[in-house]
Design goal:
It is a single chain. The protein has 282 residues and is α/β, with parallel strands linked by helices. The protein is 36% helix and 27% strand. The protein is built from eleven helices and ten strands. A ten-stranded mixed beta sheet has the order 5-4-1-2-10-9-3-8-7-6, with helices on both faces. A hairpin with a 2-residue loop joins β4 (83-91) and β5. The protein is globular, with a radius of gyration of 19 Å. One of its GO terms (cellular component) is membrane. InterPro entries: AAA+_ATPase, ABC_transporter-like_ATP-bd, ABC_transporter-like_CS, P-loop_NTPase, PstB-like.
């Protein structure tokens, strides 16, 4: 990101987080988003707004483009050679796909937690310190590590073994470590791609409780196949489905409905949404 654009982003973020602001600020404004892999259009016509300090859930059947759309927010799809994004994703009014924008700068502001816990084969301490070191953070690393682990509700469990390998943690602990690693670089947004799918119910409940605690400091987007989870943790929900091309047998994801979670699960506007949340298909 150019210095001018970085400065503009800082200014916008400052303006939208003032106490006087009554309605939650719009962090992302997605307009007519299409995602292609080569000539194949994987997702089409996505329009939605993501608000500050809310949890936004993406739900829908497998193959409907939930994760593809999520990866657009931190430009992870850039790493796929054939991927192309049309339309706009505005981050505090700044187009994330403007040619002048540096994707690395985007990923500093927008953290990612993946489906399967992926700690580095390093110590617990070095997992958390990796990002701040890489970004040249001049703060006290010990303090940064402790604060990140405290925010991820992991400090009390690991404070006496920080120099031991992160690979020795349980699955749920590893996922909270990955959340701590993401927030150690002080992003504004955390993306979570099915963060509980590999966890048992107890670890899942801890991650869900953690998300509720973190949303006071971060804006969170989560992809989940678990509708009960979306209903429990999210403020707003986007339901995606697939359209099948009968000639080519290809499937394109489409956003059917986006609204408050209460409305999506109790009084959806679209019959397709109602059929999905009531278990008639999907």
């Amino acid at each position: 990101m150019s210095p001018e654009l970085a400065a503009s982003t800082e200014e916008v973020v400052t303006q939208t987080t003032t106490p006087e602001s009554k309605a939650p600020a719009v962090v992302f404004d997605v307009r007519d988003l299409d995602v292609y892999y080569g000539e194949f259009r994987a997702v089409r016509d996505v329009n939605l707004e993501v608000r500050q300090h809310e949890i936004t859930a993406f739900i829908g059947p497998s193959g409907c483009g939930k994760s593809t759309v999520l990866r657009c927010f931190d430009r992870m799809n850039d790493l796929i050679e054939s991927a192309r994004v049309d339309g706009k994703i505005l981050y505090h009014g700044i187009d994330l796909y403007d040619p002048r924008i540096d994707p690395v700068e985007v990923r500093k502001r927008i953290g990612m937690v993946f489906q399967k816990p992926n700690p580095f084969p390093k110590s617990i301490y070095d997992n958390i310190a990796f990002g701040p070191r890489l970004s040249g953070n001049k703060g006290n690393l010990d303090d940064i590590v402790e604060q990140a682990l405290r925010r991820a509700a992991l400090w009390d469990e690991v404070k006496d073994r920080l120099k031991k390998s992160a690979m020795g943690l349980s699955g749920g602990q590893q996922q909270r470590l990955c959340i701590a690693r993401a927030i150690a670089v002080e992003p504004e947004v955390i993306l979570m791609d099915e963060p509980c799918s590999a966890l048992d119910p107890i670890a899942t409940a801890r991650i869900e409780d953690l998300m509720q605690e973190l949303k006071s400091d971060y804006t969170i987007l989560i992809v989940t196949h678990n509708m009960q989870q979306a209903a429990r943790v999210s403020d707003r929900t986007a339901f995606f489905t697939t359209e099948v091309n009968s000639a080519s047998d290809t499937r394109t994801g489409v956003l059917v409905e986006f609204d408050s979670t209460d409305k999506i699960f109790s009084a959806p506007s679209d019959e397709r949404t109602e059929n999905y949340v009531t278990g008639r298909f999907g």
